[in-house]
Design brief:
It contains 6 helices and 11 strands. Helix content is about 15%, strand content about 25%.
């Protein structure tokens, strides 16, 4: 056996046999999730398993699909990297009519994706966007703050009853199941997507998430999705979340509302700029 291969095998074996590190805990004994976290995946492009694509919007070309004309100048920046996906089983159980809407969404991504206009990302999309988020926790409270769009979620541990109104981020109620935080969220509007691939839902969306510290620096995240208007059955996503380890890790300023003012309202200028 080659020395390099032998060394790698020994290292892998040693890592597998090493005792797991104890997870951090608050004084009351609950797992301590405080910190800056981020997903490292291509799920924000398309949560289903997929091959790489030349663009988020496609048109038929003479020898295969090509980027749609509005995205042509983006080149490789507008392409979609391949991914094994985060949907258990690989595909989403859409009803046939809902599947057609997703295909229409994908064909009109630039005009329809709420992310393009800096609308709040919704749940679970906020968790695996390519931006960090912060968890602030004490013995009685649990709070999520997201870099993208300044979104946030306050987790209630005493159920306040049905949400007063439907909203982008819904109303989240938490409970502990051993060392796992379970978050039950309802009260959504129908305006958010799950990804840039047009994956949509109705206002009947119901999301049950679980957050479990598997090491001091890794959270195993899972979410069960239910929406009887759009899907034939409940389905599940799962992925790891990673602690940002920089000494000065923090959420930075991402003023995307201001960034899209020209897109949203530029035509209303007294003298509109050339587009």
């Amino acid at each position: 056996m080659r020395p390099v291969l032998l060394t790698l095998l020994i290292a892998a074996f040693a890592a597998a046999q090493a005792p797991s590190q104890p997870i951090p805990r608050l004084p009351g004994g609950k797992p301590d999730f405080n910190g800056i976290w981020q997903a490292l995946s291509a799920a924000h492009y398309d949560i289903e398993r997929h091959m790489a694509r030349p663009s988020m919007m496609l048109r038929q070309g003479p020898y295969g699909p090509l980027p749609a004309e509005p995205l042509l100048r983006l080149g490789a920046v507008g392409s979609v990297p391949g991914s094994m996906g985060i949907v258990e089983g690989g595909t989403i159980p859409y009803k046939p009519e809902a599947q057609k809407i997703r295909e229409e969404n994908r064909a009109n991504w630039l005009d329809r994706d709420p992310e393009v206009k800096c609308y709040l990302p919704g749940v679970p999309r906020a968790t695996y966007m390519p931006f960090p988020f912060q968890i602030v926790q004490n013995q009685k409270q649990f709070f999520f703050r997201y870099e993208y769009a300044g979104a946030y979620r306050d987790i209630y541990f005493k159920d306040p009853g049905p949400a007063e109104t439907d909203s982008w981020m819904g109303q989240s109620v938490g409970r502990w199941q051993g060392d796992t935080l379970i978050v039950d969220t309802k009260g959504f509007n129908d305006q958010t997507w799950f990804d840039r691939g047009g994956t949509h839902h109705s206002a009947q969306l119901h999301v049950v998430e679980s957050f479990k510290l598997i090491t001091p620096n890794h959270i195993q995240y899972e979410a069960t999705i239910e929406d009887p208007e759009v899907f034939t059955r409940p389905w599940k996503i799962s992925l790891p979340l990673y602690r940002r380890m920089e000494a000065d890790a923090r959420l930075m300023d991402f003023r995307c509302v201001e960034f899209v003012e020209e897109l949203m309202f530029g035509e209303h200028r007294k003298k509109p700029l050339k587009r």
